[in-house]
Every structure is written in structure tokens, then in C-alpha cells.
Amino acid sequence: MDTTAFQRWLDDYVQAWRTYDEEAIGALFSADASYRYHPWDEGDDVVEGRAAIVADWLEEKDEPGSWNAEYRPWAIDEDRAVAVGVSRYLAADGASVEREYHNVFLCRFDADGLCREFTEIFLRRSN
After folding, report:
1. Alpha carbons 81 and 97: distance in angstroms, whole number
2. Which of 3, 33, 36, 115 is least enclosed by beta carbons within 10 angstroms?
3. What percent of the chain has pLDDT over 70?
4. Is 1 helix (H, G, I), strand (E, B) or coil?
5. How far apart are CA 117 and CA 108, in angstroms?
6. Structure pTM?
7. Are 117 and 107 in contact (CB under 8 A)?
8. CA–CA dist 44, 1 (Å, integer)
């Protein structure tokens, strides 16, 4: 994994989130990937496998235009990569920010550039 490939993966992640296209979501993850929404997730709280990750993403969709997000690589060490960024949820006017989260993604990739381990850490910005 290098910075360019990781940025492309992050951009694809945002696009998959934006569209909720099943193929686009699946194209991000290896068949045996694990996805943690919190670093302390264990057991049944960890989403295991590409199909389960896709299904999980599709359970609770954010409305189109209700958010924006931007992430960038922060550190890469062989198959491990860390991203930082911000996710903002917008008010009904589509411009005012209602909630802002600062994000850290801990990722591990396989030889094909698919994410096989994903852990999300997010902190809500207080107003």
C-alpha cells in the first residue's frame, strides 16, 4: 500500500457511502474482511466477511446530500494504513453543519489492495 493507492481507496470509500452501490462497497473489502465500528468491538459486534459488510452498510442509509466527508492518508507501513478525516452531517438546508465527527481509520490491506481489517474511531466535535 502506498499513499496514492490509499487515497484512491479512501475516495472510493466515500463514493460507495454516497451511492450505497453494493458492488462499490464490496469492491473495497476482501472476502474475509473484518469491520469494526469501534476499536473495542469483539465477537458479534465485529462484522465479518465482505457480504456481511455490504449488508451492514445497507441497513441504515444516510440520505443523499445529508453529509459530506473527506479523509486522507496519515501513515502507511507496508500493509497497514491510517487515515484521518472529518465527516459532517448537514441540516435540512444542506449547508449548515449539525454534527461534525473527526475520524481515524485503522486499515490493513491484502496484496490486491483490498481492505481485510477496518477499524473506525470517531469523536464528535462539541459545539
Report:
1. 29
2. 3
3. 99
4. coil
5. 5
6. 0.93
7. yes
8. 29
Q: Name the residue with cell 438546508.
A: 93
The grid coordinates of residue 96 equal 449548515
Torsion, CA 39, CA 43, CA 44, CA 47, rounded to 10: 50
The residue ranges of every structural domain in the chain are: 3-124
Query: Over the stretch 52-102, which tens digit does the pLDDT of each residue have?
Result: 999 999 998 998 889 999 999 999 999 999 999 999 999 888 788 999 999
β strands within 11-112, DSSP E? 29-36, 47-48, 67-77, 80-90, 97-109
43 DSSP 8-state letter = G
Supply 85's cell numbers: 478525516
Beta bridge partners of 90: 97
